[in-house]
Amino acid sequence: MAHKFQIDLLGIIELLSEHLYSSPQVYLRELLQNGVDAIQARESVGDDFSPSINVSVSTDESGNLNMLFEDSGIGLTEDEIHRFLSTIGKSSKRGLENIYDTDFIGQFGIGLLSCFVVSEIVHVKTLSAKDGSKPIEWKGRDDGTYSVSEIDEKLNVGTKVFLNCKSGLEEYFDADFIKTSLKNYGGLLKFPIVFNDGEIETQINAEIPPWREKFYTSPEEDEAFLKYGREIFGVQFLDYIRLDDDAGEVAGVAYVLPFSPSLASKRTHRVYLKNMLLSENAEGLLPDWAFFVKSIVNVNNLRPTASRESFYEDAKLLSTRNLLGAKLRTYLLDLAENEPNKLRKIISIHFLSIKALAIDDDEFFRMFIDWMPFETTLGWMSLGEYKKQNSRIAFITNRDQFRQISQVAASQNICVINASYTYDAELLYKHYDLFREIAVEEVTPSSFSREFAFLTLEEQEEIAQFLRLADEVLRSFQCVADMKRFLPTELPVVFLADEEAGFRRTLEQTKQVSSELWSSVLDNIGLPDAAEDSSQLCFNFSNPLIYKISRSKDEHLQKLAVKMLYVQSLLLSHRPLSSKEMKMFNESLLGMLEFSIDIGGEWIQ
Amino acid sequence: MNEELEKIYNLLHEAYDLENGKTKISLCEEAVRLADICGDEGVQIETRNELTEAAVFGGEHEKGVVAFSWMIQKQKETPELINIFDFLWKYKWILGQIYGFPNIPRSQLDAIFADAIECYTLNDVSLRPIYEILCYLEMDSGNDDKAFENYQKWQSAPRDEFANCLACEVSMQVYYQAFYENDERALEIAKPILKGKMKCAEVPHATYGYILMPLIKLKRFDEAEEIFNKGYKMVSKNKEFLGEVTNHLRFLTLANKTKNAIRLFEKHLVWALEIKQFDERFHFYNVAWLLFDKLESNGETSIKMRLPNSFKHYSDEGVYEISELKAELEKDLNVIAEMFDKRNGNEHFAGLVKQNRELRKYEFEIGK
After folding, report:
1. How confident is the model at residue B82 (pLDDT cuts 50, 70, 90)?
2. In what helix (H) or strand (E) does residue A59 lie, and over which residues does it extend?
3. Whether residue A96 has pLDDT greater than 50
4. Strand A201-203 relative to strand A119-127: parallel, antiparallel, unpaired?
């Protein structure tokens, strides 16, 4: 007898294909999932049977492609068929959000529906394992009609699904395509999945994953795991970490990437749920800091979201994530203990990942911080090396400020860390928290310059007039002058601006090009006590030219020199000039030329 | 020239890969500097666009304001160079930040909003997001009638592609209702967010902070604790969330979890010291005062803390007298309150200092 679906079947098919499934090929995943669920249901009632799934494709007389998908699972009774139909009805009203919350029978129906994406008719023959069951046939069409009837046919317990390929979708019935898809989704399943293309029968999951194998030597084990990773991801990984737990709920492997992934890239993994592929791009299963690995994991007890591409954030997910995180952590700790060379190699690529973990984990921090590389004024080095050479840890958190001092610091052999990179400043503060005996100090260009050698009192007196004059020239640029001795002696002057002074400089420059309204708004953004936030032009008394200029009696020449040195120092520290500074530079350059010509005038004549 | 451009784009690229925060901002600043040196207007605009975004979402709003004010001028001079979609979108971010600087007089705020309204209207964009910001501005200035007026305008203006995302809007309605102590209403509105049905880059992070006081006032302490456990982690690493951290600090103080509260204060004081928007600093100090008041009434006289050395009363030994800390906070609170009250022409902030002291009536102990 023909029934009519009490639902908008076409609408649901559309919804399924557009929103839930990333491609029509998922009909294979759904069929496979149905088969697996049915086999597991039959196993759970204690039936003695040999579980298997058999798939075959054939071409009929008129050239149409047909598929038979057969499982030896628990089968369906007529009642159950009506139940899955009503589940479909419910999901059509409630939307698809909760469809995977339904029981096995309900999900079976939803899975079958996905077949309408590739086939106009879905034809099911089934015999339930329940006592006294009779063979049942269900035929559904994508126009919304179906029939259910008992059939007089000898069937084994289980379910057969017949599909006929819609025209235009032949690629989804292609033998190679089906084999690859089945292997992709069900490669880890423990019972045989057999495919028959009409001539040859192949078991597509004959190969077992390495974590289920027993190895007698470790080279053999290493080889098998790395080979497996190469096959799945096409990458020659640096190393691997086994992820099995004792309870048997989680099994798999994490591979150490041979390159450093971007910090912002999503950390996705190949994840199986009860040995069925859930997603090739699952997120959230491993901790955030684990961006140095790519993993393949099978889990048994997590709940997938509606799209089946990730898991619900619940307590189980959290404990699995912690467990997997602990495995990775132990791996790194073991390397530190036993294989320092391998660790060094991994650190050179993945130090960001390790730094990220160290921030949240004290024990890990203690173990690894000395291995971590940092940029310093004397080049890259590990913190351990740094600590051997320095009794305290000095660092700068701003890249621009680091550049300001790096040349001077390097020539005086002062080692300052550039902690403007991700995590660095936080790690160094944490270092102080955990190892109070080592001083950790954040330096700024001005605090740094306080360590330059002072002049003697007499020298200070000699140049006092010059400094006064320089201050006068620089005042309108929110800059103050100072004179010290520092290296390299070739460097006449260094421009130093702390964060605040740097900000004020940008603010002033922006004001010069802004409207009246915004110019006064910008004025009002600065702090009321911002007077102290000047930048500093520090002259080098060890530089012969500065020595001469500062002792010159010619104030005009001194002013020109200060102006030009100021602008030169800005350019050397990669700072754009404001229009005011540009104007001053032009004037003083011309002034300087005039001055030179005046001096050399006689010679020219 | 090409080499310079490559450097600039490398910096932007590197910044793009980072989470919001100081490092990202300083990379963008560097890119702006190099762009200014090379003088290519397109690149100057692009780098400032990035800097504005990084600064606003990394909690250094003054840098965003400076970068964007340059864009405003460019937009007026050479509108053809500016992507108007980006421009209008970022303009509202800046509006949302600008009133936290107490030295900007009300007349200037009004002029800025008038300019923004003109820009939006000229481009046929709904004023919905601007009314929303005006609503907060009036709330924070103690002008309740005007806040309500703008709330209604916000709710009735049409939503277009310039409106804030739905999750953000709902979250801000929660904020509004909680602010006016409609506690049950606030929790009701928050439901879809708490269930995880609505989220974005800042929701539920911020929302969790907004509903802590309503939960406490309704004596739903266990839920408040759960919200703290989930919420604090989400906001503890980005300076932009100082206001939310303040809400969590208040929860810990009222729950008598003073040890954790002190840790939070130690960790986040540096944000409060750095922030140029004094209203945020004000609220943080207010709650810190409450914490020290609580400690004092628990019978403590001094505490050991590691505070940043930019703190005015920093001590190398790290031992602080509670009564002195309270006195110092009071002093700073009064100075800031005066600045805002002068700007707003009322005594709203002075009132907030007093109201804060009364919050101790909501103290509770979890599990009791």
Report:
1. very high
2. strand A53-59
3. no
4. unpaired
Across residues A345-363, what is the average pLDDT?
88
> Does the beta carbon of B194 lie under 8 angstroms from any beta carbon of chain A?
no
Is a pLDDT exceeding 50 seen at residue A99? no
- Residue range B216-247, pLDDT digits in tens: 999 999 999 999 998 998 898 888 999 999 99
Residues of chain B in contact with residue A264, where contact means CB-CB under 8 angstroms, are 16-19
Q: Give the helix/strand (H/E) hosting A41.
A: helix A26-44
Whether A66 and A99 have beta carbons less than 8 Å apart is answered as no
As for the ipTM of the complex, it is: 0.90
Inter-chain contact B66–A262, Cβ cutoff 8 Å? no
For residue A97, the model assigns a pLDDT of 47
pLDDT score, position A21: 56
For range A454-480, the mean pLDDT: 92
Using a CB–CB cutoff of 8 Å, tell me whether A527 touches chain B. yes
Contact with chain B for residue A525, Cβ under 8 A: yes
What is chain B's mean pLDDT, rounded?
A: 93
Q: Mind telling me how many Å the CA of A400 is from chain B's nearest CA?
A: 7
Q: Could B33 and A576 be called an inter-chain contact, meaning their C-beta atoms sit closer than 8 Å?
A: yes
Q: How confident is the model over A425-437, as pLDDT tens digits?
A: 889 989 988 998 8
> In 3D, which of A84, A103, A90, A154 has the Cα closest to residue A125?
A154
Contact yes or no for A503 and B73 at CB 8 A: no
Q: Which of A148, A31, A143 is nearest to A80 (CA)?
A: A148
Q: What pLDDT was estimated at residue B55?
A: 96
DSSP A209: -
What is the distance between the alpha carbons of residues A131 and A36, in angstroms, rounded to a whole number? 21
User: Considering only CA atoms, which of A498, A499, A493 is closest in space to residue A481?
Assistant: A493
In this complex, is the C-beta atom of A522 within 8 Å of any C-beta atom belonging to chain B? Answer: yes
pLDDT score at A2:
56
Q: Answer yes or no: do A574 and B66 touch at CB < 8 A.
A: no
As a three-state string, the secondary structure of A5-31 is CCCCHHHHHHHHHHHHCCCCCHHHHHH
Distance CA A103, CA B238 (A): 43
Query: What pLDDT digit, counting tens, does each position of B261-296 carry?
Result: 999 999 899 999 989 899 999 999 999 999 999 999
User: Taking chain A, what is the end-to-end CA distance rounded to the nearest angstrom?
Assistant: 121
**Residue in chain B nearest A263 by alpha carbon:** B17
The residue in chain B having the minimum alpha-carbon distance to the alpha carbon of residue A436 is B306
Q: Which residue has the tokens 């004059």?
A: A469
User: Which pair of structure tokens corresponds to residue A58?
Assistant: 């054939």
> Which residue in B37, B196, B309 is closest to A574 by CB distance?
B37
A315 touches chain B (CB under 8 A): no
One-letter amino acid for residue B106 of the chain: R
Place of tokens 């503890």: B236
**pLDDT above 70: residue A307:** no
Mean pLDDT, rounded, for A517-531: 77
CA distances from B241 to A281, A461, B75, B238, B244 (A): 31, 51, 30, 6, 5
SS3 A422: coil
Q: A503 CA to chain B: closest CA distance, Å?
A: 8
Distance from CA of A424 to the nearest CA of B (A): 10
> Is B22 an interface residue toward A (CB < 8 Å)?
yes
What percentage of chain B's residues is helix, strand, coil (to nearest 5)?
A: 75, 0, 25
* B321 bridge partner residues: B302
Cβ-based contacts under 8 A for chains A and B:
91
Helix (H/G/I), strand (E/B), else coil: B48:
helix
Q: Identify the closest residue of chain A to B68 by CA–CA distance.
A: A510
Q: B257 at the A interface (CB within 8 A)?
A: no
Instruction: For residue B66, give the nearest of A264, A313, A522 by CB distance.
Output: A522
pLDDT tens-digit map of A163-221: 999 888 888 899 999 999 999 899 999 999 999 988 899 999 988 899 999 999 999 99
What rounded mean pLDDT belongs to chain A?
86
